[in-house]
Amino acid sequence: MTMPAAAPRPALFLDRDGVVNVNHGYVHRAEDTAFVPGIFELCRSAQALGCALVIITNQAGIARGHYSAAQYHAYSGWLRGTMAAQGVLLDGIYHCPHHPEFGVGPCRRDCTCRKPAPGMILQAARDLDLDLARSALLGDSVSDSEAGRRAGVGLLMLLSAGAAARPTPAADLQTVRDLDAARRTLQRWCAR
To answer: What region, left, alpha or beta, does residue 110 occupy, with left being phi > 0 and alpha being psi -120 to 50 degrees?
Structure first.
C-alpha cells in the first residue's frame, strides 16, 4: 500500500538584513551581527504553527566585491547554527549574488532571483514543497513584498520599525511596527 504524499506546507519567508539581523550594511561576519529584537520568538512561533522557515536575501555585497561567495556561505552556516541554538531550525536560505548595475564580472546581470523578482521564493517552493498561497512573507522593503506578490504568497507583511519615508504600501500589504506585531499577525493568518 502506498502512503499518500504529504500536502505542501506553508512557509514564513524572511528577508535577512533588517528583519533577521540589524542592517549595518553588507553584514557578512558574526562579529558584525546584531539580531533584530523578537526574531527568535517570531521564528519559534512560526515553527509551532507548522511553517517552514526560509530566508530570502539579496546579497549585492557579493556582486560589488565587498565579500566573496565563500564568506557569505560561511556566514550563513554560522547563522544557521546560532539560530538553531535558539530553537530555530531554518529550512532554507536562498540568496541572489547579482546586481544589474554594480556587479563585478558574472555577478553583473539582470536575473530572476533578485528581489523584487520572485525567483528565490519560487525555487524554495519547488525545493521544499511549499504552499505559497498559505505562506507569509516579512520584509523591510517594498521590493521584498513585491517578490512575494509576484510569487503568489498569501500574507505580505512590511516591517516599518525605524522606516524613513517610504512609498505607501499596496492594499494587500500589512504594515507591522515590530516583530511581535508580525508574530501576532502571522498567528491570526494561520488561525483563519
So the answer is: beta
Instruction: State how far the Cα of 147 lies from the Cα of 144, in Å rounded to an integer.
Output: 5
Confirm if 139 and 133 have CB atoms less than 8 A apart: no
pLDDT digits (tens, 9 = 90+) for 10-26: 999 999 999 999 999 99
pLDDT, mean of residues 141-169: 83
Strand residue runs (E) in the chain: 11-14, 52-58, 92-96, 136-139, 155-159, 173-176
Q: How far apart are CA 192 and CA 181, in angstroms?
A: 17
Give pLDDT tens digits for 100-139. Answer: 888 777 878 889 999 999 999 999 999 999 999 999 999 9
Would you please indicate which residues are annotated as catalytic (active-site) residues?
Answer: 15, 17
The DSSP code for 5 is: P
Whole-number Å distance between alpha carbons of 154 and 156: 7
Q: Who's near 55: CB < 8 A, 6+ residues apart?
A: 13, 14, 15, 16, 20, 79, 90, 92, 93, 94
Task: Report the side by side order of strands in the sheet with 92-96.
Answer: 92-96, 52-58, 11-14, 136-139, 155-159, 173-176
Residue 51 to residue 65: CA distance in whole angstroms:
34
